[in-house]
């Protein structure tokens, strides 16, 4: 499955107007993006039934469409496999199903996430017909989950990470495994304004243990995670500036070993399509 080097990650595909989602998807394909990520927020992803994916696939001809990510607690494996196989074969060939373990703060029955994901992948393999390993990817941050993604899926899709994490993740993957990194971006040349936007977006994630542990693991300290996040944390996790400056940050990830970068443009509301920003970024990156 060819994801291309640059994709777009957006909550608007799963939370916005379905008609505009189709229009935006067709335009993004024409702009040269390789993959469209149907974003989910902590605690849920409405793309789990693959209805949104079917709409976006129907509106496009070439791009890969990926879910980022379906919670294993909210979508039974057999139902997900059935939804995947209900799509026409030519659409399934462009669909990548992203899977995630979500967060203890969001899921009441959250237990032993690694073992739960192993069991879920086993169920996908046992489904009739199975959802193939080549059509799935794992939202992973730690080395153990990353190695599981390499062994049982196409690879991993880390979210809200820095370039140092990309280096570490690449070392935990075999050369053929896909490393598809999300990069949140802000088209602003005012550092203070950009950091304020970043802190607003980051606020819910700072309360989630999985993310806090991931950031501490890659070298940040508890002071970096306090008071909305230090400038050091913000500047590492977010790319801001002109399209060319953002392109330079993306290049750091690809140089560090990422195969694909999924750009998420911050918007005032998750239902908004950042179409002007996507056009500006395409001129610098596609």
Break the fold down into its secondary structure elements and pairings.
Layout: E1 6-10, H1 12-15, H2 18-31, E2 35-39, H3 51-59, E3 64-68, E4 70-71, H4 77-86, H5 89-92, E5 95-100, H6 113-126, E6 136-138, H7 143-152, E7 155-156, H8 163-172, E8 178-186, H9 191-206, H10 209-217, H11 231-237, E9 238-240, H12 243-256, E10 260-265, H13 275-285
Parallel strand pairs: 1-2, 1-10, 2-3, 3-5, 4-5, 5-6, 7-8, 8-9, 8-10
Helix pairs in contact: 2-3, 4-6, 12-13
Summarize the structure.
The protein has 286 residues and is an alpha/beta fold. Helices cover 46% and strands 16% of the residues. The protein has helices at 12-15, 18-31, 51-59, 77-86, 89-92, 113-126, 143-152, 163-172, 191-206, 209-217, 231-237, 243-256, 275-285, and strands at residues 6-10, 35-39, 64-68, 70-71, 95-100, 136-138, 155-156, 178-186, 238-240, 260-265.
Overview of the molecule:
It is a single chain. By secondary structure, this protein is α/β, with parallel strands linked by helices. The protein has helices spanning about 10-15, 20-30, 50-60, 75-85, 90, 115-125, 145-150, 165-170, 190-205, 210-215, 230-235, 245-255, 275-285, and strands at about 5-10, 35-40, 65-70, 70, 95-100, 135-140, 155, 180-185, 240, 260-265. The longest helix is centred in the last third of the chain and has 16 residues, at about 190-205. The radius of gyration is 18 Å and the shape is globular. The two termini are about 20 Å apart. The model has no long low-confidence stretch (mean pLDDT about 95).
């Amino acid at each position: 499955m060819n994801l291309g080097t640059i994709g777009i990650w957006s909550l608007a595909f799963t939370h916005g107007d379905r008609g505009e989602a189709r229009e935006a998807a067709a335009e993004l394909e024409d702009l040269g993006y390789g993959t469209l990520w149907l974003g989910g927020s902590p605690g849920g992803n409405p793309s789990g039934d693959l209805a949104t994916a079917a709409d976006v696939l129907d509106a496009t001809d070439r791009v890969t469409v990926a879910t980022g990510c379906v919670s294993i607690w909210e979508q039974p494996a057999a139902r997900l496999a059935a939804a995947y196989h209900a799509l026409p074969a030519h659409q399934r060939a462009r669909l990548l199903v992203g899977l995630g373990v979500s967060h203890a703060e969001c899921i009441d029955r959250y237990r032993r996430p690694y073992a739960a994901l192993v069991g879920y992948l086993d169920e996908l393999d046992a489904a009739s017909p199975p959802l193939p390993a080549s059509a799935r990817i794992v939202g992973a941050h730690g080395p153990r989950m990353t190695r599981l993604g390499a062994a049982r899926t196409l690879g991993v899709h880390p979210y809200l990470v820095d370039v140092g994490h990309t280096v570490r993740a690449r070392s935990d993957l075999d050369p053929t495994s896909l490393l598809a990194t999300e990069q949140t971006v802000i088209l602003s040349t005012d550092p203070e304004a950009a950091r304020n936007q970043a802190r607003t977006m980051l606020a819910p994630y700072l309360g989630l243990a999985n993310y806090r542990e991931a950031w501490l693991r890659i070298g940040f300290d508890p002071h970096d995670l306090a008071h909305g996040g230090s400038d050091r944390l913000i500047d590492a996790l977010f790319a801001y500036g002109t399209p060319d400056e953002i392109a330079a940050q993306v290049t750091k990830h690809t140089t560090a070993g990422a195969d694909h970068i999924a750009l998420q443009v911050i918007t005032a509301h998750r239902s908004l399509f950042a179409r002007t920003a996507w056009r500006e970024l395409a001129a610098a990156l596609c």
